[in-house]
Specification:
With 228 residues, the chain is of the alpha/beta class. The chain is 36% helix and 25% strand. It has one domain: Rossmann fold. Bound molecules: adenosine-5'-diphosphate and magnesium ion.
Length: 228
């Protein structure tokens, strides 16, 4: 059964010179509960825009995004905050960790709107992700790979049904990237969460049994000749 179901989704941006460019035009796209899907797309093809719409951070111009029984595009702001906290885990391209807080605090803050701050649970998840001795470090005191694991812990701590990952290996060297990807896939498998990952890295995309090109589901890309 579909957990995520996108219908007739359209999003355009107004450029600084005033022209309007269609970035997304997706007639239909769905991800089943517990399914792991990779979407391939070059830089500028609309990957982050799509994930931000699914996360309720951006609203589409047209169309619907269902996650389970909830329609995200039409939710009020406060409901979108609750949806994000309770059903969704988002590993941002830039991690978005709060620099003034430790690894543990970043995860705890992520729990406030969700299951509620639970120190033991946050600690055990960080330990599980190999950060047992780094909980009191701030993001700047951590390697990129470690920061990413904090972001992953924050994304997973509320036991989301759907995990979004935006080029999660983009800033990592090959070996760290492989470890990070395995960690994301394994933790989603264990918790039964669906995973939608976007990337342009062939090594990442090859690890998914379902991998689609964004340009194949996005008519806006086809209109631009499949490029961008
Ligand atoms: P990707 O994540 O695949 O690199 P994005 O979703 O970030 O792509 O961006 C898709 C396209 O939309 C790019 O051409 C980008 O320049 C444009 N774009 C993104 N955000 C905005 C914005 N706020 N205003 C205008 N154009 C934008
Ligand atoms: Mg992006």
């Amino acid at each position: 059964m579909a957990l995520l179901e996108i219908r007739d989704l359209r999003k355009s941006y107004r450029s600084p010179d005033g022209t309007v460019t269609a970035v997304l035009d997706i007639p239909a796209f769905a991800v089943d509960a517990g399914e792991q899907v990779a979407l391939e797309g070059q830089s500028g093809s609309g990957k982050t825009t799509l994930l931000n719409i699914i996360a309720g951070i951006l609203t589409p111009d047209e169309g619907t995004v269902h996650v389970g029984d909830q329609e995200i595009a039409g939710l009020a702001e406060s409901q979108r905050d609750l949806y994000r906290a309770n059903r969704l885990g988002y590993v941002f391209q830039t991690f978005n960790l709060l620099q003034g807080y430790t690894a543990l605090e970043n995860v705890l803050l992520g729990m406030m709107f969700g299951v509620g701050a639970d120190r033991e649970r946050a600690r055990s998840l960080l330990a599980q992700l190999g950060l047992g001795d780094r909980m009191d470090y701030r993001p700047r005191q951590l390697s990129i790979g470690q920061q990413q694991r904090v972001a992953l812990a924050r994304a997973l701590v509320n036991q989301p049904e759907l995990v979004l990952a935006d080029e999660p290996t983009g800033n990592l060297d090959r070996n760290t990237a492989r470890d990070a990807l395995t960690l994301i896939q394994d933790t989603c498998t264990e918790s039964g969460a669906a995973l939608l990952l976007v990337s342009h890295d062939p090594a990442v995309l090859g690890e998914f049994s379902r991998c689609e090109r964004l340009s194949d589901v996005n008519r806006a890309a086809m209109a631009q000749g499949g490029a961008a």
